[in-house]
Amino acid sequence: MSLIELSNVTAGYSRDHPAIEDIYLSVASNDFVAIIGPNGGGKSTLLKVILGLLTPFSGTVRVFGEEPSRSRKNIGYVPQVIPSRTFPISVLDVVLMGRMSSSGLFRKYSKIDRKFAVQNLNKLGVAHLSGKRMDQLSGGQKQRVLIARALAGEPELLLLDEPVASVDSETQHSFYNLLSNLNNRMAIVLVTHDVGAVSSHVKSIACINKHLVSHGETISEKDVAQAYGCPFELIAHGVPHRVIGAREDRDHG
Ligand code: ADP
Ligand code: MG
């Protein structure tokens, strides 16, 4: 079954200048997709559409076969870490927020919630930080905490916005090992502007620059590289890939 199915989706903040246009995307339940695109290319907008936070102007979106807003509880979302932002709450509280959908907004967290939160911090190797304030952590540590929060709701799909920005290469490496492990039990979609940050753990690649293109046989690799700023080197070699949904009827040149 397709976990995410976008068909002919146009969305954004003004109808005259949509941020993403005619998007087709299909993500299977065991997939690990990296979507690459320049800044302003519509990556975060695409994630908002999948999360049901932004209703498209046209086209259809199905997540777990339903309207995206109905499936949000099955989605773990890891927002972009903004380095300088103050974040004066504790690590444990951040992760507990991830239990909100299962505990209800106004219910107190239960012992089970706490246990689950600590377990997730443990899995991510950051349990020792649970009493710290978020803004005392490094970029890589913050990210692990935000992933622990995303996992707290026991999602079947993990969406990550620019997860590898501003972390060193060693952190990046262990981060991908972690994602690769998680991919055994959930689908993963990450978006990034950083071509160098895509690892061979990724199973599919798509490129977005307003339009979304996959690396498919029907499109010449050079055309994709030129039209979408997609990394030709990466498309041509290296990373394993398959088609995840391109407009095959469109002239991409
Ligand atoms: P990316 O995540 O790839 O950098 P975004 O999806 O954030 O790109 O942005 C796509 C386009 O939509 C950009 O032109 C951006 O300026 C515009 N945009 C993003 N968020 C908003 C917003 N809240 N209101 C108006 N325009 C926005
Ligand atoms: Mg973005």
Task: Give a description of the structure.
The protein has 253 residues and is of the alpha/beta class. It has 9 helices and 9 strands. The protein has helices spanning 43-51, 68-71, 91-97, 100-103, 111-123, 139-152, 169-182, 221-228, 232-236; strands at residues 2-11, 20-28, 32-36, 58-63, 75-78, 157-161, 187-192, 204-209, 211-214. Helix 3 packs parallel to helix 6 (139-152) and helix 5 (111-123) crosses helix 6. Residues 236-253 have low confidence and may be disordered. Adenosine-5'-diphosphate is lined by residues 12-13, 19, 37, 39-45.
What is the approximate shape? globular
Largest sheet: 6 strands, mixed
How large a portion of the residues is in β-strands, by DSSP E?
Answer: 15-25%
Overall mean pLDDT:
80
Residue windows where pLDDT falls under 50 for at least 5 positions:
236-253
Q: Structural class, from secondary structure content?
A: alpha/beta
Tally the helices.
9
Element order: H for helix, E for strand: EEEHEHEHHHHEHEEEHH
Helix content: 25-40%
Distinct small-molecule ligands in the complex: adenosine-5'-diphosphate, magnesium ion
Strand order of the largest sheet: 5-6-7-3-8-9
| Intertermini distance | 32 Å
Radius of gyration: 18 Å
Tally of strands: 9
